[in-house]
Amino acid sequence: MANRLILKNVEAGYGAVRILHGVSIEVADGETVVLLGTNGNGKSTLMKCIMGMSAAPPRRW
């Protein structure tokens, strides 16, 4: 079975501030992916969600 990462409609934030708005991504076995963006665009928040370390639990806005 091949390893892969699938995220669908991820929403996350801190307190009342929503950082991620419906992020979806699929990474297949053997692929290399780079997250690029300026400060404050949610790169670290997305990685924390993937690793189960998000500062706040997912919620509905």
What's the SSE blueprint?
Layout: E1 5-14, E2 17-27, H1 43-50
Antiparallel strand pairs: 1-2
- What is the structural class? mainly beta
Report the sheet with the most strands, covering strand number, pairing sense and barrel closure: 2 strands, antiparallel
Helical coverage, percent range? 10-25%
Tell me the overall shape. globular
Query: What is the number of beta strands?
Result: 2
Order of helices and strands: EEH
Q: In which order are the strands of the major sheet placed?
A: 1-2
Count of discrete structural domains = 1
Q: N- to C-terminal separation? A: 36 Å
Radius of gyration: 12 Å
> If helices are DSSP runs of H or I spanning 4 or more residues, what is the number of helices?
1
Approximately what portion of the residues adopt beta-strand conformation? 25-35%
Averaged pLDDT, please? 86
Q: Could you list the spans in which at least 5 consecutive residues all have pLDDT below 50?
A: none
